[in-house]
Write a structure and sequence with these properties.
Oligomer: single chain
Number of strands: 0
Number of helices: 16
Mean pLDDT: 81
Radius of gyration: 20 Å
Shape: globular
Helix content: over 70%
Low-confidence stretches: 201-205
Structural class: mainly alpha
Strand content: under 5%
Length: about 400
């Protein structure tokens, strides 16, 4: 028979799995056509579309990187549930307004507004991490990640289909509605017995430095946060050009938005299957080993994507990207949980989101810039190289992960 606490975190896990699924759909269903939407907002050259697409993606993440630590500090005082409600309704409103944009600068500004209300998935992760027994943290967080990745799997397909059947603008309005649904579910079905943490004075210290003073191994925490940045930088560098790359591979003909949606969704399919199993394996045999292997595998599947000549080959490799994501994202979060005091859970997950947002921003700018200066395949080569650098950092600077 489960204790009350055990029953609480399991029920919240099930509810938040559904909410992060809805959020994942909302976040990802815009991906297949965002670059196409950019091209509709002006008369741009190929290089300009790539560059502006990078700016559109980066705007959200720049603001997210700035505000995430502040939202995390507020979550420590007010609770994670209220942060879920704030994020879902705020982002829903921003997405609704995106459907009304008439020029590229309005879209960039509204993407920045979306970043201001970020934090849904990270707060869901923090809530579950704070309630779950440490010995089951890997499996629980791995399971929770499949909620958002399942949504991200369905989102591009749904978004591409909606854009083909209705219009791109209508899809923004539908996405906003999904975020409002996630907010309602969070408000009515998530239970949190929250005890506010006392505000710690940090005079003479930076926010991150003051936080790291609570950890037994701050160097490892910094490496894990940087790993989040690198992994997300690699993933997001592809986002601004994926639909344009698909368009080029298809010769500019056919149902490009729909096919791009399927290609964008394929990593999520493998992630759903891989993440919980890899998380459970890491709980038994060491999460660090999963992380190291995940980086090597990621390098091997990103590099050949720059050489493909058909959408079928690209799709097969994107499917394998989901396996590497299943090894990297949940494992980094699990290690942060295992090496963090309970009192710092919300704060460290907010900083993790901040580094993730920085990776998103830099990846968007890098992908758009490289594609504009060279060609789409260079983006994949650069991504593989950066992940290799991240692997070497962990191998030499965090030897305990190999044990």
């Amino acid at each position: 028979m489960m204790t009350e606490d055990t029953g609480l975190w399991r029920r919240n896990l099930y509810v938040l799995w559904g909410c992060t699924f809805v959020a994942g759909v909302a976040f990802s269903e815009l991906m297949p056509f965002m670059s196409l939407y950019v091209s509709q907002l002006g008369h741009f050259t190929k290089a300009e579309v790539s560059f502006y697409s990078g700016l559109v993606y980066a705007a959200t993440f720049l603001v997210t990187a700035i505000v995430s630590p502040m939202w995390g500090a507020l979550a420590d005082r007010k609770g994670r549930k209220i942060m879920l409600i704030r994020a879902s309704f705020g982002m829903g409103a921003a997405m609704f307004l995106m459907g009304l944009a008439t020029n590229i600068w309005q879209l960039i500004a509204l993407r920045a507004l979306q970043g201001l209300f970020s934090g849904f998935i990270s707060n869901a992760q923090a809530l579950i991490a704070s309630q779950t027994p440490r010995k089951e943290a890997g499996k629980a967080l791995g399971t929770l990640v499949t909620g958002s990745t399942s949504g991200m799997l369905m989102g591009p397909i749904l978004g591409g289909a909606l854009a083909s059947v209705f219009s791109i603008r209508m899809t923004f309005f539908i996405t906003a509605g999904l975020m409002f649904i996630a907010g309602i579910l969070s408000a009515t079905m998530v239970t949190e017995h929250f005890v506010p943490l006392p505000k710690r004075p940090s005079a003479g210290k930076g926010l991150l430095r003051g936080l790291l003073s609570q950890f037994p191994d701050p160097k490892l925490i910094i490496l894990l946060l940087l790993s989040t940045l690198f992994v997300q930088l690699g993933n997001t560098s592809i986002a601004p050009i994926i639909s344009l790359y698909v368009k080029e591979l298809m010769g500019g003909a056919g149902r490009i938005a729909f096919v791009a949606g399927i290609i964008a969704a394929l990593p999520g399919l493998a992630n759903i299957i891989a993440a919980p199993r890899l998380g459970a394996y890491g709980d038994r045999h060491g999460s660090g080993k999963i992380l190291i292997a995940g980086y090597l595998f990621a390098v091997l599947v990103y590099l050949p994507q720059g050489f493909v000549t058909s959408v079928w080959a690209l799709g097969a490799l994107r499917l394998l990207v989901g396996v590497s994501d299943g090894a990297l994202f949940p494992t980094i979060q699990t290690l942060l949980t295992k090496y963090s005091p309970v009192s710092a859970t919300s704060a460290i997950f907010s900083w993790n989101q901040s580094f993730q947002a920085l990776g998103n921003m830099l990846g968007s700018l890098l992908g758009g810039t490289l594609a504009g200066l060279f060609d789409y395949n260079v983006v994949f080569f650069a991504t593989a190289s950066m992940l290799l650098v991240n692997f070497l950092m962990l191998w030499f600077l965090a030897p305990k992960l190999r044990q």
